[in-house]
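ARCHIVE CARD
CATEGORY: sequence design from structure
SOURCE FIELD: tokenized fold
FIELD CONTENT:
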């Protein structure tokens, strides 16, 4: 096993989990996937040191879609595409310290 320091000071985790038993989840509407794709593209274009990843369940499905910023511990809940500019603004602020 190797250990290394992460090259990303901020990791954005977006739950895109879809359950197949009818239980509500973040990935049901496709909104979380669209948020993931847009944030990933925007941060890449801006060349920000941010890693954007899809995840499985983060826990609070009823408040989803959920986006978590790690290690800052910031959660965005009930996220929609309209929230992307605010998330991007907040992530830039987190990067500034």
């Amino acid at each position: 096993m190797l250990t290394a320091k992460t090259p990303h000071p901020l990791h954005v985790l977006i739950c895109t989990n879809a359950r197949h038993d009818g239980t509500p989840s973040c990935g049901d509407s496709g909104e979380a996937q669209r948020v993931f794709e847009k944030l990933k593209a925007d941060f890449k274009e801006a060349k920000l040191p941010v890693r954007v990843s899809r995840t499985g369940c983060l826990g609070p499905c009823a408040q989803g879609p959920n986006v978590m910023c790690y290690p800052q511990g910031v959660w965005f809940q009930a996220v929609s595409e309209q929230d992307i500019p605010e998330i991007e603004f907040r992530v830039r602020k987190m990067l500034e310290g």
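CARD ANNOTATION: The chain has a mean pLDDT of 93. Strands lie at 10-15, 50-55, 67-70, 74-76.
SHELF: design records, drawer C
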